[in-house]
Amino acid sequence: MDFSDLLLANSSCEGGECELLAFNFTLGDSSDDFASRQISAEQSLVFKYGRLFYAYFTPAIIVIGLCGNSLSFNVFISRSMRGLSASQYLAALSISDILVLVVYVFLDWTTRGLPFLPRNIKLDILAMNGVCHMFLYFSYSLRFISVWLIVAFTIERYIGVCLPLKKIKICSRAYARRTILTYTAVGMVISLYKPILSGVYAKEEVGVKVCTFNPEYEFVSNVLDAVFGLAITLVPFLIIAVLNVIMVHKLRMRSKRNKNGMRVHCVVKENKLRLEMTLILIGLSTCFIALNLPYFAVWCFSRYQTLNGSSNSLADLVTTRGVLYITRTIFYINYCSNFFLYSITGACFRKELLDLFRYHRLLKRRSFEQETRKYSPILKRPSTESSL
């Protein structure tokens, strides 16, 4: 898990005491020091309601995300959409988001969201060595792939809008597939460090086993986590923001130059799908930055507090962790919002989505008619015999 996750141990303790003990071993405090730093119930309200927000809203995000991404994938591989290189990126993004929701978001929620619901169900799935290593590896690699597919889509649209001479070579299905495979391979390779430096370790202070870094490699693990965190947050932010600003400026300048209504109509008619993909990109990348930025800011602040634990009160740490739960939940919306963005910004996407539903309805009707024809002779036979 990333360093904000170290404090979120799952154990048999009751309520807030368990969480406060988790803070204790995270910061390396002695039990005497911890006892002198107990916080009141009022001070932990942000943490309590932040975790409740996470526990109740995350399942809805998972369900909506699985349905929305499945529909999006089917639309982008449809006959009229799959010819575009941009559709290759968005179809791959849909698959990646589905896997992130199942492997990362769902398993993460069963560990620290499910126990906080009224029935207090506890599943120590991640407290097993094999499961812990697989969870860490795939959650890290899939998140990297998901983020960088958006970057790849942004670069593809930037070239299509701003560098038309290179469009034929780079904005092709074959190039898109190679790019997707490259990012997938890179994500799977650079995420290998996490399971190697991690495992299930007992925390004697609270008497539980936690899926976390190997204490012998704490410094190395923290440094690599920091680099990985920047690779899936700050670096993509900057690339996406800069390229989007350039594209919007280019489109505005082009619109001013083409004041002839007929000429603009012809351009739009010819490149309707590509222009809609550019609009989808702008909406997708803007939403990505807006949903990621709060979590990234709180994550950085939380990391700073963890490294300077002695200079922070426990009440401040609890409050930060509560806000971290809220921003984490908002961050998870990334994996379920794309379908709605596609539907709002893409007229062709909406048309293909309606055609998809009509096609399935037609298949059901044909299946029903075939079944009716199959059994109709059997149904007619008794009436024929009775007439004789």
From TrEMBL:
UniProt KW Transcription regulation keyword: no
Major localization listed first in the record, in broad terms: membrane
Membrane topology: Multi-pass membrane protein
Swiss-Prot/TrEMBL keywords: G-protein coupled receptor, Membrane, Receptor, Transducer, Transmembrane, Transmembrane helix
GO MF annotation terms: G protein-coupled receptor activity
Key word Electron transport present: no
Family: Belongs to the G-protein coupled receptor 1 family.
Protein known as: Probable G-protein coupled receptor 139
